[in-house]
Amino acid sequence: MKTLIKIGATLVILTACFQAGRYYFNNFQFEDAAQQRLLFETRASDTEVVGIMLQLANEYALPLQADNVSVRMVGQDRIVEMEYTENVPLIPGVFTYPWKFTPRASTRMLSGISGPSR
Length: 118
What we know:
This protein is α+β, with helices and mostly antiparallel strands. The protein has helices spanning 2-40, 46-59, and strands at 69-74, 77-82, 84-91, 95-101, 104-108. It has a three-stranded antiparallel beta sheet. It has a two-stranded antiparallel ribbon with strand order 3-4. α1 (2-40) runs antiparallel to α2. The protein is elongated and about 70 Å long. The termini are far apart.
């Protein structure tokens, strides 16, 4: 009987770790894609950057809202901070945890370099 309880507990823990890992990995991929897009969209305005981030979030099926995207300049760095909450089913059908993710992307804005005109 003890062995069955240990096996059951192990399965519950492994399931929770797998589910958390899936959602964390999706967030990591989104953050990486946001960093890449920000790197190549240096001429975009702050409003356009918010739109780009929302489009990316839609591609990754994330519940990101425009109010939760912050774009700011610190010196020559453009910093984009985002926040969203995902309901992670740690034990599907039994326990769901509202996990708050805070992806961030930044890029250095080089002044004095002219690129191709749009």
